[in-house]
Amino acid sequence: MLTGHHSDQELNRRKKIIAFRQQGLEPYGEKYAVTHYSRDIIEDPDSFMGKNVSLAGRIMTKRGHGKAAFAHIQDSKGQIQIYLREDQLGEKNYTFYNELDVGDIIGVTGEVFATKKGEITVNVSSFSLLSKSLRPLPEKWHGLKDIELRYRQRYLDLMVNPEVRNVFVARSKIIQEMRSYLTERGFLEVETPVMHTLAGGANARPFITHHNALDIDLYLRIATELHLKRLVVGGMDKVFELGRIFRNEGISTNHNPEFTSVEIYQANADYEDMMILLEEMTASIAREVLGTTKIEYQGKHLDLAPPWPRRKLQDIVLEMTGVDFDTIEDDDAARKIARERNLEMKPNLSRGEILFAFFEEFCEDRLDGPVFIKDYPVEVSPLARRCSSDPRFTDRFEAFIAGKEIANAFTELTDPLDQRERFELQVSRRALGDDEAHMMDEDFVTALEYGMPPTGGLGIGVDRLVMILTNSPSIRDVILFPTMRPKE
Questions:
Q1: Tens digit of pLDDT for each residue in 386-407?
Q2: What is the pLDDT of residue 140?
């Protein structure tokens, strides 16, 4: 047990385990009968004053004064001070307590009182060691600052940075409120496959795995869209799925290869209905979780109250770049203006693709929002219905808050003939080396051939929405275990 590369502190803690067991003291105890949490007592001390309570938590500070000592223990709700006296615990137990270390988990029972300085404290009449910590807390338990270590060892991050725990409590509440909002409005939560025989529903590079028994490659889903729309074809008029999505792409402050989305579909609706649903649901979540629709994100003051502005993508590009794509009639002219603006692009892009590239490169991160950007080129929207007024565009929007895209939505394409043509165009692009282009999904086209009602569809990036609502600068701050390169 004392072999290996350990610091002096770690070796000393291991020696204590041997000593404890020689004394008949078990360093890894049984369950403890907890009656209350720290916050229960701290927030309502008058109700607990003079009463006995039992708590369990990790020792975060220790300070001794001869035959009496103070410490702070931390449970899942916060911290509380404890007070221990030799004359009350007995010499053996008090000596045992003095051998404990910061980081050890203990259970304590005692009477609540307030110190002369007014700090709510538990006067410990008995305690038990529940788990011996073999490693000291990082940075003398005053906070974990190393970003990489925080993400790799989230348990330490949660242990020593209370504000991190608050973020993930808020995340849970945000997801709860989202589910409640949708189910109260008649949407049915469903589950669809995570492993697909075809990668579809988004322009993204998939993760590939292999099923040995069937001897076929399978793809971790890059979207839930095509399965959910099959359900609408089958007569399930209002459905949603909240779950993990996997895209084999880069890692950044806004991207993680494994992330959470919710996709929502409603028959006899369109993308305008999805705008209303999104803005009202987001405002409702903010009110329930934060108590207000007025928030601050990284220095930007935002109001999530509806209605949010609706702007056409082409108009935003004109406003922010000075380029009027309405006067650019063909692909060659669009490529020429892209070269003049030093826009990096794949060869043979169309006018619509270049318009979208202008938006992504020069406009997206300047959109404080919240704002809906609508009417996207058909070339970059293979699953969206064409605009009735201009078939070069689609009834599609993306929603932006603080320069981050948080949602994507369409009036869904229900014409199976048009859908087949667009899939075929995607397949041709895939053959030319675009590994993010859609695959042909014959079964989905077959489903559309049976008839799909007019439908509005909406996908929300849950992690990015949580970032906005918790004022978190990176997506890794709102994912408990973000994807990391293994340590060498």
A1: 999 999 999 999 999 999 999 9
A2: 47
31-44 per-residue burial string, b: 16 or more CB within 10 A, e: under 16 = ebeeebbbebbbee
Span of 98-102, 131-135, 192-196, 438-442 with lowest mean pLDDT: 438-442
Per residue in 186-223, pLDDT tens?
A: 999 999 999 999 888 888 899 999 999 999 999 999 99
CA distances (Å), origin 363, targets 313, 358, 373, 394, 427:
9, 7, 11, 19, 29
Band of residue 6 on the pLDDT scale cut at 50, 70, 90: confident
Q: Which CATH architecture has domain 160-309+369-477?
A: 2-Layer Sandwich (3.30)
Which CATH entry fits the domain spanning 8-136: 2.40.50.140, 2.60.120.280, 1.20.1440.230, 3.40.50.2000? 2.40.50.140
Q: For 247-279, what is each residue's pLDDT tens digit?
A: 999 899 999 999 999 999 999 999 999 999 999
Whole-angstrom distance between the N-terminal and C-terminal Cα of the chain?
A: 25
- For CATH 3.30.930.10, the residue range(s) in the chain are 160-309+369-477
pLDDT at 5 over 80: no
CATH 2.40.50.140 positions along the chain are 8-136
| pLDDT the model gives residue 271 | 97
